[in-house]
Hints:
With 137 residues, the chain is of the alpha+beta class. The protein has one domain (6-136). Helix content is 15%, strand content 34%. It has helices at residues 25-33, 126-136, and strands spanning 6-10, 14-17, 43-48, 65-70, 75-83, 86-91, 105-109, 114-118. The protein has a six-stranded antiparallel β-sheet. It is globular.
Amino acid sequence: MTKPTHIREINNFSRGPLVDVVRPYPEQIRFSLNQLDGSSFWGWCLWRAPEGADLLEDLPLSDEFLQCAGTSEALTIEVRCIEDGQAHQYVVGRPGGDLFTEPTEVIFWEDGNFSTTVYPHEVFTADEAAVFSTRTS
């Protein structure tokens, strides 16, 4: 096991270090995202811990993160970052989407209590999101 450098959060509630005890990090991220069912497990978030943080002692929050919500078959990915002191949150999409029409794809989570409408090129499967997550984290 390597020293954890990232924190993951489930359903905006349960936080812990991202560890590679059972499987390597990319496989752990893929495994976690494939558990998204939109009901009991609907959201997954990842951020880099501050340099030198002891994640056994403290799990600090961050203003910058990557998050996914939905199900393993259809989820949205968002990136939140700080630019010029201001927080900005962006939906991730593949290149080439048609942005001249209204978004049509609805992603539901938390038993359908919440949803967001995105463009078709902004809908990912868990496997696709895992590839994106491991490249950007």
